[in-house]
Amino acid sequence: MKRLLLAVALILLLAAPWIVTAPFFVHLMIMVLLWTVLGASWNLLGGFAGQVSFGHATFLGAGAYTMMILYLKLGVAPWYGIILGGVVAALIAMPIGYMCFRLRGPYFALSTLAVAEIIRLIALNWESFTAGPVGLLITTLPKVTFWGKALNWESKTPFFYIAVVIVLSALFATAVIARSRLGAYLLAIREDIDSAEAIGINTVQVRVAALSLSAFFAGMAGGFYAMYLRYIDPDAVFSIALSVEMVFIAVVGGLTTVAGPLIGAVFLVTLGETFREHFLVGHLIFYGFFMMLAIRFMPEGIWGKVRLWTGAAPHRDKS
Amino acid sequence: METLIQSLVSGLLTGSLYAMIGVGLTVIFGVMRIINMAHGDMVMLGMYGAFWAFTLWKVDPFLSIVLWIPAAFLGGVLVYRFLLKKIVPAGELTTLLYTAGLSLFVANLALLVWTGDYRTIKLDYAVMPLRPLGIAVPIPLAIAFGMAILITIALYWFLVKTPTGRAIRATSQEPEAAALMGVDVDRMAVITFGLGTALACGAGVLLAPSLYLYPTVGEILVVKCFVIVVLGGLGSVPGAIAGGVLLGVVESLGAVYVSVPYKDAIGFVIFLLVLLFRPSGLFGVGKS
């Protein structure tokens, strides 16, 4: 039954650009998918391990700049750039993790905020490397033929399928981790870090591993973001607001679940982007509003609530 | 030499206002263990309060503080009572996320209502800076400095000398023991949140004539605020004052002697070093 539902959902997802063809809706779906990856990335660390990061824009930005710089300076094709963007983000995450995971709880959150701001300032001022506030621009994407037909980069459909691949890999990774030993370690750390330490879990190493994995997906999302928009500047990819948006999508959708970030992104991004069509500013007002509502009345998130109702998740004692 | 004194003076002037914002954040943390991500947005609201009082009613910004400080106190009390009270028992991380939501909500509401345009307040008497001993002192910043010192001293006196202030400090040190001694901990929490909000808003009013106003200015202010408070030790009022002045001076010296683009980064680097190596603050008085 569950597999049948999954298969139907997958077919619907793959057929979506043929069912609704209006450019705005295809754009909306791409943004939803992009934010799903970012929410899922944050969920790996913030949901499973309970480590609240306010600096995930760092990894998004690292991925975006890696893809852009590799393509513009060395001519590396964007799809390799996206993967390498993830790798670079994961590598950057390691020293950050070893440094910041000496701190716990809110202190860790504040330290990630500071690191992210330092990196944003570096990107803004290292002009020979990042072009600074001017930003980087892709004028043409490489020609690709697919089944004998040249891909049309002016249409949004190819981007949609690239995004689908990244989303599926992120959600699949979440599902695998949730069932793995690493997942169990992360939950142990979330529940009680001292006890986790006491039973022999190397909590620093495990958290660094989770951060790197999380950064890998955020970096891929960043590479994709740069390829899709074809223009980035430090304030567009390294801003605090982006880090905060990821947190909200993961929390509102449902922490520690596989589908939560997808639900959160569908809900918040659809609201936000539709609002943005009518009013140019202020679309994040919904994010703030539903974040407060969710924490107050639905701390397990939308998907977590659904799982409680359908009996897919056991009720947890409030202790 | 002259540049050194000049940058020390400007650092001190800005630092006094940083200190005022920092004290607001630190008393709230001390009593309720709330890391208030929306603190910067309270400063932003104060700035807009001053702007509208000046534009609509022709009230001098420095005079309008008489209206906005009580209003902010009341607003803080209401926010605590109706939004935060139920969240606080869930722990520091949950309140951190919750106030981040509040911050985004307030900033975006301001964007919708007041648009993202940069605004300024132009005071007739503030065109030329004062030049005592050849050092340029902008008049609005000098007035703000004086008023920030007065307000901070008043608050300090309140905390040290009055029974309510003593009860607040007791709650901050040890809530359970304070409750056993007959302190109404809930009431202290409400009063403290009101006070912290009033300080942030008041600092916003004082800063308004010296800065550009835009709805998301709180985002950068709140991050600076964390730097200040962690420098001085979370929960410590004298620490926040010292941290505020220190950050102001470091930024201003950094802009002259290190580099203008990286002046903001210096604060964050010090912040990280303090968090990692001296988590109780530079003066070792905070709670970690």
Question: What is this structure's SSE topology?
Answer:
The complex is a heterodimer of chains A (319) and B (288).
Chain A: H1 2-19, H2 23-48, H3 57-74, H4 78-100, H5 105-125, H6 127-130, E1 136-137, E2 145-146, E3 149-150, H7 157-179, H8 181-191, H9 193-198, H10 203-229, E4 231-232, H11 234-237, H12 240-253, H13 260-278, H14 285-297, H15 301-309
Antiparallel strand pairs in A: 1-4, 2-3
Helix pairs in contact in A: 2-7, 2-10, 2-12, 2-13, 3-4, 3-10, 4-10, 7-8, 7-10, 8-10, 12-13, 12-14, 12-15
Chain B: H1 2-32, H2 39-57, H3 61-84, H4 92-114, H5 139-161, H6 163-173, H7 175-180, H8 185-207, H9 217-232, H10 237-257, H11 263-277
Helix pairs in contact in B: 1-5, 1-6, 1-8, 1-9, 1-10, 2-3, 2-4, 2-8, 2-9, 3-8, 5-6, 5-8, 6-8, 9-10, 9-11, 10-11
Explain what this protein looks like in three dimensions.
The complex is a heterodimer of chains A (319) and B (288). Chain A has 319 residues and is an all-alpha fold. Chain A has 15 helices and four strands. Chain A has a single domain, classed as ABC transporter involved in vitamin B12 uptake, BtuC (Orthogonal Bundle), CATH 1.10.3470. In chain A, strands 1-4 form a two-stranded antiparallel sheet. In chain A, strands 2-3 form a two-stranded antiparallel ribbon. In chain A, a hairpin with a 2-residue loop joins β2 (145-146) and β3 (149-150). Chain A is globular and about 55 Å long. The model of chain A has no long low-confidence stretch (mean pLDDT 89). By secondary structure, chain B is an all-alpha fold. Chain B is globular. The model of chain B has no long low-confidence stretch (mean pLDDT 88). In chain B, α1 crosses α9 and α1 (2-32) packs antiparallel against α10. The A-B interface holds A 50, 52, 54, 99, 102-103, 105-107, 109-111, 113-115, 117-118, 121-122, 124-125, 240-241, 244, 247-248, 251, 279, 281-285, 287-292, 295-296, 299 and B 35, 83, 86-87, 90, 92-94, 96-98, 100-109, 111-112, 115-116, 216, 219, 223, 226-227, 230, 259, 261-262, 264-265, 268-269, 271-272, 275-276, 279, 288.
